[in-house]
Recover the amino acids of this structure.
């Protein structure tokens, strides 16, 4: 059901492969509820994280996922490595492989770096976020979270609000949710809408109130604050007024709507604290589900290698 060496993105996965990963992650959720959370499938395997951008959630949950599966986890520190002496990413990856790694987790500001590495190394490459392209494990943990609150993805209305053009989280979620039959609405100012949005199979809104109306899921994205200096936004205060998620806007969605955010959050910019910490928020549940999803991905790529 899942034959790949690597996980580079959601775009190339079939709905069956996505469902298979989610089923596997659900099983690992049960394992994580036990007193003894450690299982043996990746004993003797080594996972190396190669993050060229900061991370709290992704890196920590991958580390925990690897350890729960009994793998060795090595955190490669780019800032104290020979990368700063000018070593190329190709040579760095081949060096990590020669040291015996079975998996490399790569986060990079340039789109396509995981795809490039996957062609030159034999170890499994997992995309932990590449530029504005994809963040596949974030989308998978978002799906796992939605699945635990909603009966089916088919016909579900999911409103994604924020910097759609530059968000890898939005891209991976749009690919995943549309493949599973959800109706996806994207809401943002025209300056933050991707030029090719019509090819994504989503409904486009510039008014948040229209876009949120009767939604089952409200997914707000981190606003990359550097966008403000590039003329995409008038001001952060204006952005919050026009596109921020507050209590009144949540009330426009269905009564049982859930509120999601991939983190890290800018409180008072894309989401009000009262909503982030409120009863409909599943933001910390998303974080927790990151471990089970990443266990599933590591297990399916390397634990039962074909
Ligand atoms: N959502 C997410 O990727 O968070 P981190 O940048 O903290 O990993």
């Amino acid at each position: 059901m899942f034959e790949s060496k690597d996980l580079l993105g959601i775009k190339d996965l079939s709905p069956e492969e996505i469902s298979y990963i989610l089923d596997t992650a659900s099983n690992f959720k049960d394992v994580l509820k036990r007193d003894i959370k450690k299982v043996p499938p990746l004993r003797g395997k080594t996972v190396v994280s190669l993050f060229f951008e900061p991370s709290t959630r992704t890196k920590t949950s991958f580390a925990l996922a690897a350890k729960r599966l009994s793998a060795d986890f090595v955190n490669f520190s780019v800032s104290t490595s020979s990368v700063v002496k000018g070593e190329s990413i190709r040579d760095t990856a081949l060096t990590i492989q020669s040291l015996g790694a079975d998996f490399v987790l790569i986060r990079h500001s340039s789109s396509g770096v995981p795809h490039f590495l996957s062609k030159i190394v034999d170890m499994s490459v997992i995309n932990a976020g590449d530029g504005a392209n994809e963040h596949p494990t974030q989308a998978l943990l978002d799906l796992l979270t939605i699945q635990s609150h909603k009966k089916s993805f088919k016909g579900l209305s999911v409103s994604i609000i924020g910097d759609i053009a530059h968000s890898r989280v939005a891209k991976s979620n749009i690919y995943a949710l549309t493949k599973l039959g959800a109706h996806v609405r994207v809401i943002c100012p025209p300056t933050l809408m991707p030029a090719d949005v019509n090819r994504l199979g989503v409904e486009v809104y510039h008014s948040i109130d229209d876009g949120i109306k009767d939604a089952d899921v409200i997914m707000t994205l981190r606003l990359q604050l550097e966008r403000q200096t590039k003329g995409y936004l008038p001001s952060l205060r204006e952005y919050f007024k026009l596109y921020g998620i507050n209590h009144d806007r949540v009330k426009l969605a269905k009564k049982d709507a859930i509120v999601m955010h991939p983190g890290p959050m800018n409180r008072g910019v894309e989401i009000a604290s009262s909503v982030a910490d409120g009863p409909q928020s599943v933001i910390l549940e998303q974080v927790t589900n990151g471990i089970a999803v990443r266990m599933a991905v590591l297990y399916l790529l390397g634990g039962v290698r074909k």
